[in-house]
């Protein structure tokens, strides 16, 4: 059973889903041709899936065990975490931002 913090982690996805449902039940959706509605829904649902993926990455990052230090391929030791570091991650859904712990070199 999901915990409250897990539910909170997906609040942006839930909000986006509600927006899609609201649009589909509204007058604007009723006035579109089938092709126009399919096109709009395809874009909106892809964005929903991207948001779900992003929310999952953020949750995974918050649960990750932080290592004390890491030695990279060049044998450089990294011992401190860079706060707020993000990196882009290209997926089949779209561009997401991953928030892994980024260790910097101890110099």
Write a brief caption for the model.
By secondary structure, this protein is of the alpha+beta class. Helices cover 51% and strands 17% of the residues.
What does it look like?
The chain is of the alpha+beta class and 107 residues long. It is built from four helices and five strands. The N and C termini lie far apart (45 Å). It has helices at 4-9, 11-24, 27-31, 34-63, and strands spanning 70-71, 77-81, 87-90, 95-98, 103-105. Helix content is 51%, strand content 17%. α2 runs antiparallel to α4.
What is the succession of H and E elements? HHHHEEEEE
* Dominant shape: elongated
Q: Strand pairing plus helix content: what structural class? A: alpha+beta
Show unreliable segments.
none
This entry's quaternary arrangement is single chain
* Share in β-strands: 15-25%
Q: What is the average per-residue confidence, as pLDDT, rounded to a whole number? A: 83
The total strand number stands at 5
Q: Largest sheet, described in full? A: 3 strands, antiparallel
The number of helical runs is 4
- Percent range for helical residues? 40-55%
Q: Kindly report the spatial arrangement of strands forming the biggest sheet.
A: 1-2-5
Terminal residue distance: 45 Å
Q: What radius of gyration results from the CA coordinates?
A: 19 Å
